[in-house]
Amino acid sequence: MSHYEKTLFYRMKILRRQKSNAKYDAKYTVSTVAESIPCGLAQSGTPLLTEDNGRHEIKTRFLVHTLYADVRKGDELEITADDVIIGTFIVTKPYPVMDRQGVHHYEILVEEKSDS
To answer: Dihedrals φ, ψ of 60, to 5°?
Structure first.
């Protein structure tokens, strides 16, 4: 185990919405892509104050670090620590971080999923 892998002490479950093949009245199903994937979680920047129809909301963006490559924009990440759910996050933009030998790890910008 590398020094970097030792810093990934959270676990994530990746959930992906998939549309059915029905021509009319298509339904979405949520499927689990992967479970118990090691990751790291850090707050990214300052919280943003947004306004939507008179409601003020503070949106905090987070940065997830992982070695797992198959994360797509729009996926939901359920992040846990010691079987306690830290939160559910929506993936906004995953990108690879390179080093001399190729891809070192992936950093994923996520937003906390609202309850509504």
So the answer is: -110, 130
Is the Cβ–Cβ distance between 97 and 103 less than 8 Å?
Answer: yes
56: amino acid identity, one letter: H
pTM reported for the whole predicted model:
0.80
Token representation of residue 110: 């996520």
What are φ and ψ of residue 65, in 5° steps?
Answer: -105, 135
Please report, for the chain, the start and end positions of each structural domain, with discontinuous segments joined by +.
3-112
Report the pLDDT value the prediction gives residue 3, as an integer from 0 to 100. Answer: 82
CA angle 42, 51, 112 (to 5 degrees): 25
Structural contact between residues 80 and 92, judged by C-beta atoms closer than 8 angstroms: no
Over pLDDT 90: what percentage of the chain? 47
Q: Where are the alpha helices (DSSP H) in 1-116?
A: 3-6
CATH 2.40.10 for the 3-112 domain, yes or no: yes
Q: HSE-up of 102 (CA within 13 Å, CB side)?
A: 1
Q: How far apart are the first and last CA of the chain?
A: 40
Comparing C-alpha atoms, which of 14, 29, 25, 35 is closest to residue 90? Answer: 14
